[in-house]
Batch of 2 targets.
Target 1
Amino acid sequence: MKKAFITGITGQDGSYLAEFLLNKGYQVYGLTRRTSTQNFARISHLIHNPKLELISGDLIDQNSLTFALKETQPDEIYNLAAQSFVQASWEQPVLTGEFTALGVIRVLEAMRLACPQAKFYQASSSEMFGKVRETPQNENTPFYPRSPYGVAKVYGHWITVNYRESYDLFAVSGLLFNHESPRRGLEFVTRKIANAVARIKLGKQQYVELGNLESKRDWGYAKDYVKAMWLMLQQDQPEDFVIATGETHSVKEFLSIACEIADLGDWQKVFKHNPKFDRPAEVDVLIGDASKAKKKLNWQPSVSFKELVALMVNAEIAEEKQRKE
Ligand code: NAP
Ligand code: F7E
């Protein structure tokens, strides 16, 4: 039985990855940090599974990471934990650097000492391309991050490459473009729109306040993307991969299709601009070229943009119908 260790198991990707690995028969260990109220909402359906064990630790605490890896001796390590919200990275830039950048080297150091034979996955991001140097972006496109988050991810990416080259570790970096789902945090634009549109439809809210509607993203479905993480660790050679749909759509398009799906009519009737959600430096347009992943991993996305918007809006309508105000 293979053993996997996931940091960030309580997050969107961590919860889907845990499900995916448990279905494959893995023993899964998940790192969770201590909070005064439990935040296991995304994994509540998994916590009684005998093949899942939660281990207490924090990316900021080296000993907790080394101890967790010494105890569990995993075959695969997925480093998904991070301060992952770009906007918050301007409000908490130092914390973002601690978690999202230095957190990576702490996990790598723990692995080097406790289980150097394991395979390591680093959750890199299309935000590293930022003010893009070429279109579409592939594994060789130079980085130009535009936020403290993007800069921290560039560190995480290069330290992963460096540990692979310095210590001959099986360490890879997945350069994943935006991926969404009903489990996305409410602060991210897709879930924020899907939730607001559902609430407007049910008469609980009148409009949605957003920032820049013109920015464009390559949006895929999170469940497809966690499979790509696993595939990267099943290869014989450690290599980095871009994971993306190859399509780009604006925030405005997302909003307009969401309104269409919920039968709200013209999106302009429910939209208000709030400069609070504009960013000090924006990433205008991202579009990924995942042809290497298609060729070597036999990976491709299974959910189209329109299907993604529909599945998110419909999930929010169902959820909001249940929720008591
Ligand atoms: P998410 O929902 O925000 O989850 C982040 C996870 O990290 C949570 O489980 C969180 O735990 C944990 N965490 C944060 N700080 C920690 C710390 N100091 N110690 C231990 N755990 C900590 O993020 P996601 O969307 O699943 O993304 C997963 C990873 O992929 C992240 O590294 C993100 O930056 C990266 N990424 C995401 C996307 C995307 O579109 N989703 C694209 C590219 C890369 P709590 O529950 O306790 O807060
Ligand atoms: O913003 C614009 C905003 O916060 C998308 C993270 O998972 O993907 C994610 O980062 C766009 C931006 O995601 C609002 O300005 C407009 O242009 O949903 P987001 P993100 O910044 O692309 C990457 C790949 C990651 O790695 C990150 O971890 O939408 N936008 N109005 C807004 N965004 C938000 N959040 N809220 C608004 O009201």
Target 2
Amino acid sequence: MPTGKLKPIASILRQAKEIVVFSGAGLSADSGIPTFRDGATGLWNKVDPDEVASIDGFQRNPRTVWHWLLQLKNLVDERCPNAGHQAIARLEQIRPGNQLTVITQNIDGYHTRAGNEHVFEIHGTIHRVRCHRHCGFVATWEQNASEPFPCPHCGAPVRPDLVLFGEMLNEEVFAAAQVRSLTADVFFCVGTSFTVQPAALLPVWAQRAGATVVEVNPHPTPFSDVADYSVRSGASQFFDALCAELEESKR
Ligand code: APR
């Protein structure tokens, strides 16, 4: 990992009050969860997202979407947060005076399991199901729920509580994430290809509002030339090294 950028980033962080970590699938790669678009292993290079992860696909064949997401949930339940998630949670402890907010596109719940308290899951979560008609029914996605079932309150279909392609994000959650982005002093973008809107607007808004934007990704992205710092590194290596640098300077 290029260490030349570590010290200036750590120094900016020491002055920061509001920190945002905006994460994508690349952060969970070290947990063994495939990303969506990475080369041969990318999930969308193996299966058509319109068939298995879109609202049209769900309305055409709910069982196909349910089963594909259930196998992803089973993988997420078998694996666990990695050193990158743990270092981001440690960042919250090292800088107690800061407000550290995680805004994640990921649905695996790993940030919360690693210990971060302020997490906005703007694409929802694979650990819950809800009434498709938004009647109010929400429940944990139990292992025994191997087939789609009707809402016990209103009879409409029950579906995973995540954002399928073709759906709008939860307005309240996204608005709160937008406010955090506009007040951020430092905005980390880790493990994302900036492919999906409106999530990919958040770092742009943050930078326009004055945040220092730091991208952490082993590969270049469309945002690499826009970020204030673009670090060619895996998430675990970078955030582990950043925490070590911050803890070193506290001694
Ligand atoms: N550390 C950091 N970044 C990594 C790592 C790693 N160890 N491994 C891979 N990456 C990077 C890849 O270079 C790529 O830029 O993570 C990024 C993953 O990109 P995508 O697979 O497109 O995932 P993401 O950006 O989260 O996708 C956004 O698209 O499919 C929808 O809703 C889904 O939330 C998802 C959204």
